[in-house]
Specification:
alpha+beta, 4 strands, globular
């Protein structure tokens, strides 16, 4: 099943190294393919370098595209990470 969802980067520091590492750690737990898209650029959410290349700052809106047998669980976990500001206070 293929799912798409728009998510916003709400943590103050954006997708910096620690946030990207948390996202990769969550994404690799799923067999589904997981991609994030921004401004015509797409990257594999299981690649820390790809995520950092998005240069997503606070307020950036990304499109999450997940395809596979555990896609709903993957979407739920990734949305939770973004909503929780990757465990950051702000």
């Amino acid at each position: 099943m293929k799912l798409e969802r728009e998510i916003e980067v709400i943590n103050r520091l954006g997708l910096h190294a620690r946030a990207c590492a948390s996202l990769v750690k969550a994404a690799v737990q799923f067999s589904s393919t997981i991609a994030l898209k921004h401004d015509g650029q797409s990257c594999d959410a299981k690649s820390i370098m790809g995520l950092m290349m998005l240069a997503a700052t606070q307020g950036t809106r990304l499109t999450l595209v997940v395809e596979g047998e555990d896609s709903q669980q993957a979407v739920n976990r990734i949305v939770e990470l973004f909503s929780d500001r990757f465990g950051e206070e702000e």
